[in-house]
């Protein structure tokens, strides 16, 4: 295999990056806060927006959805998303009956081109172990309460296969364009820890009551 990301030893990439970061910071060449800011950008902004566009296109273009489910690596490349950690991508679809949850039990394998860098909780031992032993409890911790008759499938990522969850398209979004839909697709929903809430709409009862 060409890329092994289960290397958690002291000499692994994470340790070497940390050592390099420390050295550069000591020499005054690097501001650790700036590094955190860049990492945060890739975790929450740039990265997951790519995945959101993939999901929105799958929701609005049945032929694209079929291609995505058949070969996600190729379908994602159609939109220009490729790069490290992007090979062997598999898309899995949530439905009323099946909810998919993604984890890397060994470390932090994650589909970078569509989701960016993994969040801290994804890399935590608690998430990695409990996603398998108690997925329903983990979902509850994220505020996701699933009916008992919904089957939860847990997918263990690796250097060979990384997963992208296609969340359910919420009700009330029928008139929205792909661009508008991409705005409501969250990173967490594409890892499978949350669902996407129906967007609040102008003229809805809730909103007009508070206006
Ligand atoms: Fe891993």
Structure description:
The protein has 211 residues and is mainly alpha-helical. It has a single domain (13-197), classed as Nitrile hydratase alpha /Thiocyanate hydrolase gamma (Nitrile Hydratase, Chain A). 48% of the residues lie in helices and 10% in strands. It has helices spanning 13-26, 32-60, 62-70, 72-78, 112-115, 120-123, 125-133, 135-141, 178-184, 187-191, 205-210; strands at residues 89-93, 98-103, 151-156, 162-166. The protein has a two-stranded parallel ribbon. A two-stranded parallel sheet has the order 2-3. Helix 2 packs across helix 3 (62-70), helix 2 packs across helix 9 (178-184) and helix 3 (62-70) packs across helix 4. It is globular. The N and C termini lie far apart (59 Å). 30% of the residues are buried. Mean pLDDT is 87; it is low at 203-211.
